[in-house]
Amino acid sequence: MNPLAANSQNILPRVVVSSYLIFCGVYQAEGAAFQNLDFESSPSFPAGTDNPPYIVQPTALPGWTVHIGDTIQNGAWANQSILDSPFVALMTDSRNLLEGQKSVLLQSTYSSPIGFPGAAPINVGISQTGLVPADSLSLHFKAINPYYSGFPIAPGPLDIQLGGTSLSLIPTYSNGGYVEYGADVSAWQGQTVELSIKVLTTPVYSPNFPEGVAYLDSFAFSPTEAPEPGFLSLLLFGSALLARRLYRP
Question: What's the pTM?
């Protein structure tokens, strides 16, 4: 037998199998599901304090990328917060104001008081890329403004993006500073896209030093259609729109 012919017969099946495995690997990577949308897969941390040192925990938010302004941060704080400073923190147990054991707290601020040279918003957020389930019609999540007693406004302002497009958030339930939201995501069914969750700044908290804050939790894709905006939705949307207009320097 011709040894070259024999080798070619052996090589061809290997090439086919290798190509198939590579294809499967790429397909699985591109079609990976979103992770840790309710933050319950995050590890537990000690109760912590709001005093320095403020420690970035690389394992705090598995699956998520943390953004402080234009900078990607290697993790998030855990059970820590500080006034007048931009941060992302995992809040657990008694520090968590939402359901389950864990949620995330996002706070955005200006770099310095308005009027100072270079004063600009430092908006914070988290993001990840994943597969929107093929039957998804809506995205739902929960949020709370921890300072509602002094500043009775909706959490945020929030900018939730899917595939680079800001979603139209529809409040489905509200009780004080606690709001449940829904949004139409039918345009992204079966697509692998980036989910970005941002908190912007607003002068409602301080005209000279705008901030924004929200606890967020329980992000979930649903085969149920997003509800139509009602009076509550329009009222909160108007408040959010006003806050975003005021926020612009």
Answer: 0.82
